[in-house]
């Protein structure tokens, strides 16, 4: 493994200042909150960083604050703390459950919200040194290769799937992301934060080169809001979703007033099922309605040669997630 320069910082302003200085000097840097994936990428050569800006020594950006109009969550909160936080009551179950589904307890104890949302793809071509779009090349090897775990929605020219569990939950909750660099902060709607390959095949998000995700803002839920996150994997632990669904419903006497249904594991970004959301509005949540929503979930899917198994998985995950939220 190559020699690395480690910079311990004590605050967000100090972190983004260090990033700006590194970039100005022509160095390649990376922020490291938990570092569970970053250091492996550096070992494998998929991340070229030679400066690590260590965020574990930063004490701010780790809190949860529930205000009248919104809930603020720091980007450096660990997934364990997020999954068990007492202030995140039932309307935020989708976020707690998504955090609890990640990896193993050891990983969740150090991995952060920001790290989970901004992690790079786990496509085996990218991770094994192929010169694909994500590695700066000009092709996607999965198109005609091994694509069992690749995108069935939104693919092209790259067909990776976004690996984050928290991302679909945050999009479903209509969160806003707060990012910082040495010039200040800005806010990006979660729905606009993630970037399709058709917009930029080498990137997964809208962060500028020296920006850091420092927190999220989630609007206060109204009465009757319920939510859940359901994930299907190919093994019990330390793996990513084959298919997942983040569902947030606003129920009024059993009638669905609004619905957010966002998939993970099936697209290069968290994939919002707008047709399913439209169908659900005004319906009484029942097994029949959930089944119809599940069927509708795959209407616009475009599977590759070897990932057609994701179609029935997607229908089933949407149906089962909805039935979790059905009134008793």
TrEMBL record:
Residues forming coiled coils: none
One GO molecular-function entry: FAD binding
InterPro entries reported in the protein's UniProt record: CO_DH_flav_C, CO_DH_flav_C_dom_sf, Diverse_Substr_Oxidored, FAD-bd_PCMH, FAD-bd_PCMH-like_sf, FAD-bd_PCMH_sub2, Mopterin_DH_FAD-bd
A matching Pfam family: FAD_binding_5
Top-level taxonomic group: Bacteria
FAD-binding PCMH-type domain mapped to chain residues: 1-223
SMART domains registered for this protein in UniProt: CO_deh_flav_C
Entries under PANTHER family matching the protein: XANTHINE DEHYDROGENASE FAD-BINDING SUBUNIT XDHB-RELATED (PTHR42659:SF9), XANTHINE DEHYDROGENASE SUBUNIT C-RELATED (PTHR42659)
Protein name: FAD-binding PCMH-type domain-containing protein
Organism encoding this protein: Candidatus Entotheonella gemina
